[in-house]
Amino acid sequence: MNPSTKTFTASYNPSTARPHRQDGKGSVSSDPTAIFTDGENQMGMSVTKWRLNENEFSRGPDYLENRFNAAQGEEEWGEGSEFSNFCEIGEVWDLMNLAISGERFPTQGVESLVILGGDMLREIDEPGGMITTLTQQDVFKVSQLLTGFNIDSLVARCDQFERLPDFVINEIRQKLADLQSHYTLAAREGQIVVTRIYGP
Question: What is the architecture of the domain spanning 32-198?
């Protein structure tokens, strides 16, 4: 790890209901994210993941950000496309955290790495925007965790989801399946996973 790279793990601060970095330098988002109000999930942040090899990763943060920008301009990320190694989590990232760990902002164990965690490479010039990365070793740990989950069981055990409409539940279920596949392939191919967090 580069000595200048700061470790980032999403954690929950009860006084602000916002994720905070372990380095104590403030919140990831300028707005509270992931609060249920009358069955609706109030979200402002969005998350996209990308699995890549070390050679591509070594091209640096500018290259990574440009690739994320290019991916956002494309509608098709399916197999055979230029962006088939990307995985869109979108604005249901906190609900996926809730399904996986029982918390919107897990702070302990492998669960804290799945959605937002990792080494922070760069903060972006937008409130809450940043790029984080997981090493090959952490990718393997996350893959093992997710492989052991049954998605239907994950969704069913979340009492909070009972207030959500079916189309949101279906989206969560599909994105969890996409995430499982993403990490499985990354672990199998010895890849790094880079995450782009978009601020509200």
Answer: 3-Layer(aba) Sandwich (3.40)
